[in-house]
Specification:
single chain, about 250 residues, alpha/beta, TIM Barrel, 8-stranded parallel beta barrel, 11 helices, 8 strands, about 40% helix, binds phosphoenolpyruvate
Length: about 250
């Protein structure tokens, strides 16, 4: 049985005060969610205080990024070890916004994934194609390369710790959701590619869908066999919507 997971990626939203309020609202409502692991990913500045706000609930904490260096003279960066010291247990890596706006390559991302794992953080590793890549029917090839360049480079023990998130770039923050059939097709493909390298272990990997998921479309998306949950951006900023999405299983 794969773990069902719903992650709220708050991105660069909320002040500390607003973040604490949101975390408290999610924590309070989380008892209405059964059989789904809930994770919130606030900005770095909020991690310690959000951890405190989540106390007494089962909601876990994730960062949205970490550095590709261990420590030292890297002004403005936040190391995996620092993230872990806040009580976070996950870290989102490879989000298309990081790849696109901050030039994060597979080489950089592999370093980040390894450092996260070395510091007991579980990476939520994002993959997905751009619109032009789907329109030119290169989406499978692009996603396969992203997996080969990072996930394939891990040993089996580390591979078992990662969560994958398929996020078609054209669906992120655009209001344009992949159809449940498109999501299932790609998730099944991802699992097949992973099985070529990791055998039956690929059956246990949670593969989340991300891209304009909301309460009104989550049920259909989550009904698909290989869709094990969601990475939620915009809709995770409203506690009731985030919880409603998790209740869609
Ligand atoms: C995301 O940022 O991972 C995401 C899926 O965003 P949205 O739900 O807003 O499309």
């Amino acid at each position: 049985m794969r773990t069902k997971i719903v992650v709220g990626n708050w991105k660069m939203n909320t002040t500390v005060k607003e973040g604490i309020q949101l975390a408290k609202a999610v924590a309070a409502a989380s008892s209405n969610v059964n059989g789904v692991k809930l994770i919130v990913a606030p900005p770095f500045t909020h991690l310690t205080l959000v951890k405190e706000a989540l106390k007494g609930s089962n909601v876990e904490l994730s960062a949205q990024n970490c550095a590709n260096k261990e420590s030292g003279a890297y002004t403005g960066e936040v190391a995996a070890k620092m993230v872990a010291s806040t009580g976070a247990t996950y870290v989102i890596l490879g989000h298309s916004e990081r790849r696109e706006y901050y030039g994060e390559t597979s080489e950089i991302l592999l370093n980040k994934v390894k450092l996260a794992l070395a510091n007991s953080l579980k990476p939520i590793f994002c993959i997905g194609e751009r619109l032009e890549e789907r329109e030119s029917s290169r989406h499978f090839e692009v996603v396969k390369a992203q997996l080969e360049e990072v996930a394939y480079q891990l040993d089996k023990t580390d591979f078992e710790k990662i969560v994958l998130a398929y996020e078609p770039v054209w669906a992120i923050g655009t209001g344009k959701t992949a159809t449940p059939e498109q999501a299932q097709e790609m998730h099944a493909y991802i699992r097949k590619v992973l099985a070529e390298k990791f055998g039956s272990k690929a059956e246990n990997t949670s593969i989340l869908y991300g891209g304009s998921a909301k309460p009104s479309n989550a049920k259909e998306l989550f009904s698909k066999a290989d869709v094990d949950g969601g990475l939620i951006g915009g809709a995770s900023l409203i506690a009731d919507d985030f919880i409603a999405i998790a209740q869609s299983f």
